[in-house]
Design a protein that fits this description.
Blueprint (H helix, E strand, L loop, with lengths): L11 H4 L3 H22 L1 H10 L20 H6 L15 E4 L9 E4 L1 H17 L7 E4 L7 H13 L2 E3 L6 H10 L4 E4 L1 H13 L11 E5 L5 H10 L3 E8 L4 E7 L6 E3 L4 E6 L13 E7 L10 E7 L1 E2 L11 E2 L4 E2 L4 E3 L2 E3 L1 H9 L4 E12 L2 E10 L1 H4 L3 H19 L4 E5 L14 E3 L5
Parallel strand pairs: 3-4, 3-5, 5-6, 6-7, 18-21, 19-20
Antiparallel strand pairs: 1-2, 7-8, 8-9, 9-14, 10-11, 11-12, 12-15, 13-14, 16-17, 18-19
Helix pairs in contact: 2-3, 5-6, 8-9, 10-12
The structure holds adenosine monophosphate and zinc ion.
Zinc ion (ZN) binds next to loops.
Length: about 450
């Protein structure tokens, strides 16, 4: 007899499967995957041969610990299509990660991958409160970034009405919220707060809107931010997680209990490791999330190091789903910053600064949230010669630095030139980043 669940569930069979059955399915899929990548991706064949791994020797799920990790660096080294497991003929979509490090990380999807992605996004949208009756205002960016199209396909598969408004143009977002009666919005959490502020500024009572749920992700956020969003809009704010290398949004998503994100481990097998040693941490302990894509065909990845820090939450969820839950992402194990949704490495900025003769490569990056939008200030020392120069020369140098950084990372920054030898020096690791956003 069908069991009753407190909230609607998109795929009852998969989302509430008993753990033993799911383990059997995972092992079957893992074996298939390992042979698949060995036969099709020269990168994996070489790695397996070097370490003496034979696909036929995978006998249990714990054997995964003997497989090599895959990193973002491996994807870069094989740019753009070297990690694909199928010919381009079979690829129906190409996306890229939001990092604009000159060359983005490129990912390709077969039709089957698009179907898997839509399926996990439909699960996510429904667990976040979306139904067939919903009107979904999809304010994630459409384009190379996976957010827009990911949410779009998931909401359509679910049977909701999707408004593909994409990101930005806040006045239009508000008009559509008012006139089209959207009850679900999908965007970054920081944008939702900006939107709340603009709604208030326009003298509109947020309670007069039909909005009930927001499905927010693509950047780190906190419980206090959730409380603020829920109070100001007022809606239920749901956390969604994903990354383009694995599939895009929909890797894990909160249910309405809002106590951790169920990771769809029939497709994305999670491990939590100590980022220093690569060993598994104890159950429930904080560490780096590593994911193996059990079913992906276009660009399947073995033990991909996400660099995202989280833990697996113990216990069962009252919603009835048996997928394990990830805690909110607490930070990253590398120095990547996410500024307005764009991945930025301090090393990229350093690369620009060392090439500009007017400044010395002593710098600090200061990140603030101003009216809920990220602002990156680059504080950099000028050289002695320029310092004794006229103000005109300083202004020109400031513009030059700002322009060069914009070219490199694709977002605008505030440049502050400071006197020689005023940026704090450090004896150990330089403290390059001051993040005032209080995201942790
Ligand atoms: P991209 O592949 O460019 O979409 O970026 C993926 C990265 O965004 C992840 O590895 C995370 O660092 C971050 N991210 C995505 N969703 C969340 C979330 N809900 N909370 C915190 N960080 C997130
Ligand atoms: Zn749940």
């Amino acid at each position: 007899m069908a069991k009753d669940f407190p909230y609607p569930i998109w795929n009852i069979e998969m989302e509430t499967m008993d753990l033993e059955t799911r383990k059997t399915l995972q092992l079957y899929r893992l074996k298939e995957l390992v042979s698949y990548v060995y036969d099709r991706v020269p990168f994996y064949k070489k790695k397996f041969d070097e370490t003496g791994i034979k696909p036929a020797e995978i006998k249990s799920l714990s054997d995964i610990a003997g497989l090599p990790f895959t990193t973002k660096g491996d994807l870069r080294d094989n740019y753009p299509y070297g990690m694909f497991a199928v010919p381009l003929d079979d690829i129906v979509r190409i996306h890229a990660s939001s990092g604009t490090t000159g060359k983005p990380t490129v990912v390709g999807y077969t039709q089957e991958d698009i179907d898997t992605w839509s399926e996990v996004m439909a699960r996510s949208m429904m667990s976040g409160g979306t139904t067939r009756k919903s009107i979904v205002q999809n304010a994630y960016g459409y384009g190379l970034f996976t957010g827009g199209l990911g949410a779009h396909y998931g909401a359509e598969l679910l049977g909701a009405s999707v408004i593909p408004i994409s990101g930005g143009n806040t006045a239009r977002q508000i008009l559509v919220l008012q006139d089209f009666g959207s009850d679900v919005i999908t965007c970054t959490p920081s944008y939702s707060l900006y939107l709340a502020e603009e709604i208030e500024k326009a003298g509109i009572d947020p309670k007069s809107l039909k909005l009930r749920y927001g499905i927010f992700g693509a950047e780190p956020w906190t419980e206090s931010m959730r409380m603020e969003i829920e109070k100001r809009l007022p809606i239920k704010a749901i956390n969604i997680y994903g990354l383009s290398e694995i599939i895009g949004p929909g890797v894990a998503n909160e249910c309405q209990e809002q106590k951790g994100m169920h990771i769809y481990d029939d497709h994305f097998y999670p491990e939590i490791i100590n980022p220093e040693t690569g060993e598994h941490v104890q159950d429930g302990e904080l560490g780096e999330l590593v994911i193996t894509t059990l079913t992906k065909k276009g660009i399947p990845l073995i033990r991909y190091r996400t660099r995202d820090l989280t833990r697996i939450l113990p216990g069962d969820c009252p919603c009835g789903r048996t997928h394990p839950r990830l805690d909110r992402i607490m930070g990253r194990s590398d120095d990547m910053l996410i500024i307005r949704g764009v991945n930025v490495f301090p090393s990229q900025i350093e690369e620009v600064l060392v090439q500009i003769e007017e400044v010395a490569p002593h710098y600090q990056l200061i990140v603030d949230r101003d009216h809920n939008l990220d602002v990156l200030t680059v504080m950099v020392e000028v050289n002695d010669k320029l310092f004794s120069d006229e103000i005109k020369g300083l202004e020109a140098a400031e513009k030059k630095v700002a322009h060069a950084i914009h070219q490199m990372i694709g977002i605008s920054v505030v440049v502050k030139l400071v006197e020689p030898r005023t940026v704090a020096r450090s004896e150990g690791k330089a403290k390059r980043v001051i993040d005032n956003r209080k995201l942790n």
